[in-house]
Amino acid sequence: MNQIKKPAYVFTAISLILFLALGWGLKSAYAKNSRYIHPLTFFKHKPLKLVEQLTQGPKRWRIALLSIAKAGHILAKNHIKYSIIIVAYGPGLKAFVTKYDKKYAGVIETLNKEHIKIVVCGESMQESGVTPEMLFPFVKIAYPGILAYIAEKEEQGYAFIKP
């Protein structure tokens, strides 16, 4: 994928999250004479289940993590049941290493406060020399790897988001 397409994918993923979370517009996607939809009404009686992949390097961590934290906050405020999981591997797993906490601890604590689950790849940890003690205490480890975990969650009805 070339460099021009990457920002478009990130923008699309973040826009989708914010669109779902904010519930912009009117009450129905099918309202006559309406150009707006209000997707949160769909989730009033059904939980919203998302798995977001975090594989990017540090330049993208803040925007990806903040958008998910904001989505969790808005969903909770609107009494929407949700389950959001961030799965991190490759360069993305280092976002949850405590030595980076000066920049990202506040955002990561917000994720935990909003009940957003964080799961990192055990294989990526081994390859990058990260030990369980180096991670925030609430971060879970999928061992040996994360791909089967993602597939399992998709089978359980989670939507997979790759920013």
Give a verbal description of the structure.
- By secondary structure, this protein is of the alpha/beta class.
- The protein contains five helices and five strands.
- Strands 4-3-2-1-5 form a five-stranded parallel β-sheet, with helices on both faces.
- Helix 1 runs parallel beside helix 2 and helix 2 runs parallel beside helix 3.
- The protein is globular.
Fill in the keyword field for this structure.
about 160 residues, alpha/beta, Hypothetical Protein Ychn, Chain: A, 5-stranded parallel β-sheet, 5 strands, about 40% helix, about 15% strand, globular
Task: Please write out the topology.
Layout: H1 5-22, E1 48-54, H2 58-77, E2 82-88, H3 101-113, E3 117-121, H4 122-128, E4 140-142, H5 147-155, E5 159-161
Parallel strand pairs: 1-2, 1-5, 2-3, 3-4
What share of residues are in beta strands?
15-25%
Name the strands of the widest sheet in spatial order.
Answer: 4-3-2-1-5
Amino- and carboxy-terminal Cα gap: 13 Å
Largest pleated sheet: 5 strands, parallel
* Low-pLDDT residue intervals, each spanning 5 or more residues: 24-30
Radius of gyration using CA atoms only: 17 Å
CATH superfamily: DsrEFH-like
Order of helices and strands: HEHEHEHEHE
The CATH C-level name is: Alpha Beta
Number of E-type strands: 5
Q: Give the % helix.
A: 40-55%
CATH topology: Hypothetical Protein Ychn, Chain: A
- Class computed from helices, strands and strand pairing: alpha/beta
Number of domains: 1
Overall residue-averaged pLDDT value: 81
In the CATH hierarchy, the architecture is 3-Layer(aba) Sandwich
Shape: globular
Quickly count the helices: 5
